[in-house]
């Protein structure tokens, strides 16, 4: 099907460690449709972050391929790949990666400015998204002036502000208190109805249960978990 948001085919990733090769992913196949919400679970070290990085085009597979909006990431140059990521994808990392010298509003506006949105409009949309994640009162704070949970919410706003087709999240509720975690899950539901797809790596069974499907990584293989 050509309308999948993300497809991975026969995806493998091995790390060479001295004279040892560690096969982290072994011919993984996966298809993400618009609006679909998928949890990826698995033991620590099972390869969840590795898979997420491949899906987001941040790393290259040893073999196999990832198609984003029907385009093979490996066949794109770095510029083209960045453009596709900027337009189509939101990424929330385990360590938020906010820019320390910019305040919350500037951090969230950044992907819009990169996409060529005018500054006034970018700020307006950044403020609206920060309001939506409960951070409207911290627009001018820099990351160093925010708590861990607040930084995480700014990172989430930055990932969502471009209204991406697909949002990849690595342990998005790790730093959040229960109320903020619930707010994030409601936001995922809301954006899901606006047809964004989500891939959420999580150790939290409650979050996994809120997604449409759960896939487990085990010994390099991805398998559907029964509900
Ligand atoms: N750059 C690297 N070089 C060598 N080995 C690596 C590298 N990155 C990851 N690995 C190994 O690949 C395996 C999978 O790592 P990954 O971070 O994807 O796991 P994970 O499931 O996300 O773990 P966690 O739940 O602890 O975050 C681990 O055994 C790790 O040590």
From TrEMBL:
Keywords: ATP-binding, Cell membrane, Membrane, Nucleotide-binding, Translocase, Transport. GO terms for cellular component: plasma membrane. Transmembrane segments: none annotated. Pfam families: ABC_tran (PF00005). Residues 6-227 form the ABC transporter domain. Gene3D superfamilies: P-loop containing nucleotide triphosphate hydrolases. GO terms for molecular function: ATP binding; ATP hydrolysis activity; transmembrane transporter activity. GO terms for biological process: lipoprotein localization to outer membrane; protein localization to outer membrane. Belongs to the ABC transporter superfamily. This is ATP-binding cassette domain-containing protein.
